[in-house]
Design brief:
The complex is a heterodimer.
Chain A (H helix, E strand, L loop, with lengths): L8 H33 L3 H6 L11 H8 L1 H34 E2 L3 H13 L2 H14 L6 H25 L3 H9 L4 H12 L1 H17 L2 H5 L8 H5 L3 E2 L2 E2 L1 H22 L3 H5 L5
Chain B lengths: L3 E2 L4 H26 L1 E3 L5 E3 L3 H8 L1 H31 L5 H11 L6 H12 L5 H8 L10 H29 L3 H9 L4 H29 L3 H6 L11 H11 L3 H34 L1
Classes of the chains: A mainly alpha, B mainly alpha.
Family (chain A): Belongs to the binding-protein-dependent transport system permease family.
Keywords (chain A): Cell membrane, Membrane, Transmembrane, Transmembrane helix, Transport
InterPro entries (chain A): BP-dep_ABC_trans_perm, MetI-like, MetI-like_sf
Chain lengths: 280, 290
């Protein structure tokens, strides 16, 4: 704070230090387990089980090579990516008009509908696992990507509606009215003028759909067996007759962190707004 | 903002309605169906009335799981909310370091939940894990697969690791929205650090903190994957929370009737608590907005 010259240095310094200490300690706490995972992924199994060391003595990339060359491993990533992208596209597409309706109009039962949508975000996936399994089996969608994508809509669509509604509220209504006076039809106005205005909101909503679909395991595991099996479920199969393959398990874990870490960077300033459902 | 009354807006909401109805109402009705019927296999069902509900309400297993769940949610809220606020207050206000902190803090939130479990499994094991090895080397008897206390500590620390950043990010966003003039006024009044926190920062964070508590309550109440990977609900039933118990019942033992009755009551509890939070939140927004 440059505009606080009144405080004597002795009073400022300890406070700054305390803040730095808290921050560094917290970040260390967050990063230590991740470091350990990376450390494990670069060791051979013999080294993991045979000795204890803070860094890999016998550096190896074989664990990563195993995953990246074996289709039963890397197809897990491909499957996850496919249903995550499908889910994000579906969620955003249906959520956009709905969010617009909620942000601009009052209509019969709108508040109840809004809360009902939120209740789906609160539904424990465990409650829905079995019925989903039966529903998608009976319509012949079991073990397809679209089944998982649709199932994840259960919590992602409400979330997308909430986030987009929050962002849309910030756009003044005069813009809509001006566009209509200028002779824009609703679809043209929505795509040409309105969507560019809330581009960051769409990005954030897409990020959250991506995120929650990416981290979910219970439903995606229940709804798939072979063809659409997500990486997270593949990981549970590292147990073999010779025990757990810790090195490969760790490497697979590291690889699941990478996509998230890449996209965080782009939305870092909006993460909080997204979690607050657009309400900060 | 003033909203126009327009019932045609329903057409804009229709796609969402259809989609969510397909993926929520149909499965939910299936659950309701099961909860009032009994089966002897081969798709023969018999009307069972409210028996399953009575049985579940009388079963010790359900109450035990609910008790553990409440204790768990209570503990993690009591840790994560104050810690999150503390971290948010300690974050750099702007510049490169603020970005670095934001990105690093968000990292655990984007890790698939079973990988979170795996990370803590690898980190906590007494033979290969940094934490377990160090603790045992220091003479602490720590083994999360056998010790009741160790299992609980691991699951709680894991959740704190996983989700405190969420509270911190929300609180940070709340802090960012405070105009500098407030702080200047406080300085002129020679307000203490505590007074600044109590009368400026806390009220301004109230809204986002409500959201944080709501989200953390909901998600911790549904927690399944992370403890399942780490402890598998054990030792014994020590960390068998509601979802773990439910999945065991429904997919493991295929006890559809009791599982369905359990599901509905479980969902109702979450709905009830969330409704209270939601109402408080909306009222608060109204008071602030107008």
């Amino acid at each position: 704070m440059a505009d606080a010259p009144a405080l004597p240095a002795s009073r400022v310094l300890p406070r700054v230090n305390a803040r730095a200490v808290v921050m560094v300690a917290y970040l260390l706490f967050l990063l230590l387990p991740i470091y350990w995972l990376v450390n494990m992924s670069l060791k051979t199994n013999a080294e993991i089980l045979g000795s204890f060391s803070l860094w890999p003595k016998d550096l190896t990339f074989r664990n990563y090579a195993t995953i990246l060359t074996d289709p039963s491993w890397y197809m897990g990533y491909v499957n996850s990516m496919i249903y995550v992208v499908m889910n994000t596209v579906i969620s955003i597409t249906v959520a956009l008009p709905a969010a617009y309706a909620f942000s601009r109009y009052t209509f019969l039962g709108d508040k109840h509908l809004f809360f009902w949508l939120l209740t789906n975000r609160m539904a424990p996936p465990a409650v829905f696992a079995l019925p989903f399994f039966q529903l998608y089996s009976s319509v012949g969608l079991f073990d397809t990507h679209i089944a998982v994508a649709l199932a994840h809509c259960l919590f992602n669509v409400p979330l997308a509606v909430w986030i987009l509604e929050g962002f849309m509220r910030g756009v003044p209504k005069e813009i809509d009215e001006t566009a209509y006076i200028d002779g824009y039809s609703f679809p043209r106005f929505f795509v040409k003028i309105f969507m560019p205005l809330i581009a960051s909101g769409i990005g954030v909503a897409a990020f959250f759909c991506f995120m929650f679909s990416w981290v979910e395991l219970l439903l995606s595991r229940t709804l798939t067996s072979v063809d659409a099996k997500p990486i997270a479920a593949t990981m549970t199969r590292t147990v073999s007759a010779s025990g757990l393959d810790w090195g490969v398990l760790a490497a697979a874990g590291v690889l699941t962190i990478v996509p998230g870490a890449l996209v965080i960077y782009f939305v870092r300033n909006y993460i909080a707004k997204g979690f607050a459902l657009g309400r900060v | 903002m003033e909203k126009t009354v327009n019932h045609k807006a329903w057409f804009l909401v229709l796609p969402v309605l259809v989609l969510v109805a397909f993926s929520a109402v149909i499965p939910l009705m299936t659950v309701v169906n099961y909860s009032v019927q009994d089966t002897f296999g081969q798709n023969q069902f018999f009307w069972a009335g409210l028996n399953w509900f009575r049985e579940t309400l009388a079963s010790e297993r359900m109450w035990d799981a609910l008790g553990r769940q409440l204790v768990f949610s209570g503990i993690i809220l009591a840790i994560e909310v104050p810690l999150g606020i503390l971290v948010a207050l300690s974050m750099p206000k702007k510049g490169v370091w603020a970005s670095v902190c934001l990105v690093l803090m968000a990292l655990p939130l984007l890790i698939p939940w079973n990988v979170v479990g795996t990370i803590w499994q690898i980190f906590g094991r007494e033979d290969i894990g940094l934490l377990g090895y160090t603790l045992n080397a220091l003479g602490v008897d720590y083994n999360y697969t056998q010790g009741f206390f160790a299992a609980w500590t691991t699951v709680i620390v894991m959740d704190v690791w996983h989700w405190t950043s969420l509270v911190a990010l929300l609180a940070y966003a709340g802090l960012q929205s405070i105009p500098n003039a407030y702080y200047q006024a406080a300085r002129i009044d020679q307000a203490s650090r505590w007074a600044v926190f109590r009368y400026i920062e806390l009220p301004k964070m109230q809204g986002v903190l409500m959201i944080a508590v709501l989200l953390r309550f909901m998600d911790s109440f549904m927690i399944y994957t992370e403890p399942f990977v780490v402890t598998g609900g054990g030792p014994g039933n020590a960390t068998t929370f509601l979802s773990i118990d439910l999945v065991k019942m429904a997919l493991g033992q295929f006890d559809l009737g009791p599982a369905a009755a359990f599901s509905l009551m479980y969902f109702l509890v979450i709905l009830l608590v969330s409704y209270v939070f939601y109402t408080v939140m909306v009222n608060m927004e109204k008071r602030e907005g107008k």
